[in-house]
Amino acid sequence: MTVYLPIAELSVNIFIILGMGAAVGFLSGMFGVGGGFLITPLLIFYNIPPVVAVATGANQVVASSISGAITHFRRGTLDIKLGTVLLVGGLAGATVGVWVFSWLRRLGQLDLFISLLYVVLLSTIGALMLQESLRAMRRAKNSESAPLKRPGQHNWVHRLPLKMRFKKSKIYLSAIPVVALGFAIGVLTSIMGVGGGFIMVPAMIYLLRIPTNVVVGTSLFQIIFVTAYTTMVQAATNYSVDIVLATILMVAGVIGAQYGVRVGQKLRGEQLRALLALLVLAVGIRLAVGLVLTPDDIYSVAVGGLSY
Amino acid sequence: MRRLLSSLVVLVSLISPAAAQVPFGEASTVKEGLEIGASTSEIAIASDFQGADLTIFGALTNADELFLAIGQYDVVVTLEGPKDYATVRRKERVLGIWMNTQSMTFEQVPESYSLASTRQIESIDEAPSLNNIGVGIDHLPLNPVGYIPNSGLIGEFRDAYRRLKLSNGLYQRDTNGVRFVSSSLFRASLRLPANIPDGMHMVRAYLFKSGALIAQKEMPLRVVKTGLEQAITDAAHQRPFAYGLICVLIAVITGWGASLIFRKD
């Protein structure tokens, strides 16, 4: 059964889109990430124009983050104050990001830039996470208890001014790195159509030393608002949010996510992180291969645009 | 159509004696004309649009019987989509990565182009005159915008443009698409691809006599996205803010709804 996507302007098989949404939803529920970093490349692999894939991906992440955030809120693993500080940076970053997005699109380098960003970020973060989780698994095997508070663990981040107390997270931290992190993620949200959880979660854990239990819920909270904002701005400037595509992806995604959450609860933290790392690496490698392999056609044609 | 046909019969019967007196090869005093008509002036694209066939009927008026008999009349019917700039980009390997390095923008070319003719158009008329009138996929004017230092590139980019348009179905040709159903009545079948752009299209019919264009007729055809598709496209472009808000709202409802439905665990 085919369905016509009015903004992407092409007909697609509804079951492939549903399957994509459900699979990504399952993984996002399992790992507590929005799934945008998977959905956007998948849509691009399925010939959806990258412009539409990115904007629609951001919209889809809104839905998948909300159900995740509510679950965390009920469990009390969401720090609203920390999330709000992140959000301030996030909204500013998303605004800058949409501007850069439109500029790259006029230049004809948007597709390449999206792929390159994905490759660089996914492979770096995937490799770092894999390394860390393998070390943690080895430690668990040797039944050494991981030292939670080592002396000298505080890094330069913790010497910055403008300190704030985040009660729920039980940390005392400068607002500067939090806003900066939010800003960087906001830029990525609008250029890559991701929530940015796959970067924000490790950055919060390893850079800001925020306790792991509140990290996922708090990042999801921030992601809801930044992706919602990005959806609005993309709709207003690039007219590239496909409501039909987004709705199909969201419905399938949230259902898949519920099952993913259950599976995720049965797995251990470090195993979960190792799996996520492998997944992130796989998507990155797939995109890298696409950049290096000789394309079927070295020419491409785009309608409109006085870009030369 | 019936009225047209009957008037045609009258015309032909009136002219025939006069035409017979004109020696072969000399121009007839009465000029041939061309009439076209279609069953619809609007094509609706619904959500399950898989492409469509458009049939155009036409008639030659004042046709010379002798020329008709020896097949000296040729008809070409085209459907041109809305015009816009088109940018062709070429990738090159830079540091191992394929990236767009060169681009060329062509002025106002039709986004879609479907052609039907009585035979191969290159055998109807010579290339320079086809280029002149801009009939045929290989003869559409493709003028680059701005100064292109290396003029050899223009040919390559033009070829690439035509090849890409043909391969994604937006440009089509059918050299048997025009059939004469009687001596002066013809029927042209044009294929509308599934990815046809919406907007104002133009049906153009060209009549060639012994390889020279002698008459031309055009007729507008609107392609509209119907129902929900049209409403969505309109909303996205005319009320982008409200549209974005609805997109976000759907996401909120979907996400929230799911967590309510699956609350039990």
From TrEMBL, chain B:
<keyword id="KW-0812">Transmembrane</keyword>
<dbReference type="Pfam" id="PF09608">
    <property type="entry name" value="Alph_Pro_TM"/>
</dbReference>
<protein>
    <submittedName>
        <fullName>TIGR02186 family protein</fullName>
    </submittedName>
</protein>
<feature type="transmembrane region" description="Helical">
    <location>
        <begin position="241"/>
        <end position="262"/>
    </location>
</feature>
<keyword id="KW-0732">Signal</keyword>
<feature type="signal peptide">
    <location>
        <begin position="1"/>
        <end position="20"/>
    </location>
</feature>
<keyword id="KW-0472">Membrane</keyword>
<keyword id="KW-1133">Transmembrane helix</keyword>
<dbReference type="InterPro" id="IPR019088">
    <property type="entry name" value="CHP02186-rel_TM"/>
</dbReference>
